[in-house]
Amino acid sequence: MEIGQETSVAEPSIVENTPEKETKDGDSGIAGEEYAYLEATGFTSELFKIEVRGLPKYYGISELKKLLNVKLKLSSNKIKIMKPGSPFIFICFRNQEDREKAIKALQGYKWKGKELSAFEAKPAADPLVRRRKEASEGNGEPVNAKRRTVEASATALAYLSYDEQIVQKQSEMENVLQKFGKELWTTVPTLRSFVEQQRELYAGLPCELEPIRRSPVQDGYRNKCEFTVGKDAQGTKRVGFRVGSYSNGFLEVESVQKLKHIPECMKKTVAIFEEYVQASSLEVYSAETYQGYFRQLTVRMSHATGQVMVIVGVHLQALAEAEQKDLKQSIVDCLSSEAGKAAGICSIYFEVIQKRQQGQYTNPIEHLYGETHIDDEILGLKFRISPQAFFQINTPAAAVLYQCAIDLAAPDHNTSVLDICCGTGTIGLCFARHCKQVLGVDIVPQAIEDAKYNAERNGIENCKFYSGNADDFIMSLIRNANIVQEQKESIIAIVDPPRAGLHVRSITQLRNARGLDKLVYVSCSPQSAIKNWIDLMRPCSKQLRGEPFVARKAIAVDLFPHTPHTELVILFEREPETADDVPSVTPSVDKEENPGTV
């Protein structure tokens, strides 16, 4: 199952996502079973865990990693955040020496104005065993109230009509913007007068909110799904979605055949592969024992061509070379059968699922059969999609989303567009016909290769794409834009970051960029983006030297019908830094005699 913005069905594992509960003195008997995994699974960093308290309210996970592993030269193996904004976290190490070194370095260390404390933490109990213990004490009766059907987990709003879903989502986006305004008012006192005037103008919101844009397709819209291979409550091998998690104490996988948001070609592909897995002598992977082979089935499809790409994820365990070869051939034989071709399968990949090493972001993947890519279309442009590339999950609605971004930005032929976190170049290429040039950056090299190919394929010559970390690359893009302000040339930034939002370094560079007067922020997780929005609007400071941006207008776009999730696009503007211009909105601290004027 895909863990992401469009569904709440999760697939955590025992080590990464177990709830932190300490052992009680005197525990014995079955309590020992709750910690048996510490010896049964070989190495686990749970043995060398520390708790860190006193953390600041706002910090990024990459900031924390840099503090630990770069500045303090510690060797952390895993960071376990309990929930956003939590004042404590758990950090795991590979040995006792590293753990002791970390406690010594972090105890009393001052970070972002807070003094940290660090001490040893006990390993987490195995939640699956704990739930079984609770069930046995209750005469086998179910004790977990979180158990839901796959329909309720993956498509929580499917019981509503689409009109009712749209009304609910518009209301939720209003709540998000109200929270944004409240936090802006609370954390930046110099903006209070401005926020209050904006609320009067926009019915309690800090900026204008247009009516939500509907998805052109409501059923069968998903172009990518990650299906779990496991067993249902009766022990039958299944390919589908998990309805629980390890931390909740149950791992059952249920069928996806009745889910509204999955297209028929995917359902057929799942049924074909499920039949293959059930007939195989190889077991499905167990998150409890770490044994078994079949783990995941990723399916991508094209709305434009009907092509289907399949990536089969397998734990190889101790399979010999010849056995691996036979396994791959049997997968190809199954999925390239007449039934597979009828489902649209034209590309097959084999993914080796393994424990990733430091700096490794993806698993090894091998092309087994057919095409290496599939193609789709957005706003009349053709895009090549590789197995691991990011592509908006709802292609028809992505066209609506990108058109909204273009309309909000309103570029002209003197505009240079910076496409931050550009992926395969979809947003930037859609902007290309409306502006002077597009400069994009993404951390995934394969995505940049796809972006360059997509530009050439569509005959677009005013786009350049660069591989690198957006946090460090923005100023280079601005220099490469080489704008001439005297000729009324300008820069617009389009940011479409991951769920966690932009790193503070990116925000700083965007704020400090001369000539950058508009910014369109596309968020798949609006709640998580609020801190970014506040930082864009803060008054000038030693770190944020450039004039602040102002949130002008927001538009919600429904990319995920039948689920609670919604994309939100916000236009931020600031006036050009010229002596004669009078800002239309002046929230900065030194010009507050007329805040909020539009």
Layout: helices, strands, pairs:
Blueprint: H1 14-17, H2 30-33, H3 37-40, E1 49-53, H4 61-71, E2 76-81, E3 88-93, H5 96-106, E4 110-111, E5 114-115, E6 117-121, H6 127-137, H7 150-154, H8 162-187, H9 192-201, E7 208-209, E8 224-231, E9 237-242, E10 253-254, H10 264-279, E11 294-301, E12 308-314, H11 321-335, H12 338-343, E13 345-352, E14 365-370, E15 374-378, E16 381-385, H13 395-409, E17 415-420, H14 426-432, E18 437-442, H15 445-457, E19 463-467, H16 470-481, E20 490-495, H17 504-512, E21 516-523, H18 526-537, E22 550-557, E23 567-573
Parallel strand pairs: 7-22, 12-13, 17-18, 17-20, 18-19, 20-21
Antiparallel strand pairs: 1-3, 1-6, 2-3, 4-5, 8-9, 8-11, 9-10, 11-12, 13-14, 15-16, 21-23, 22-23
Helix pairs in contact: 8-9, 8-18, 16-17
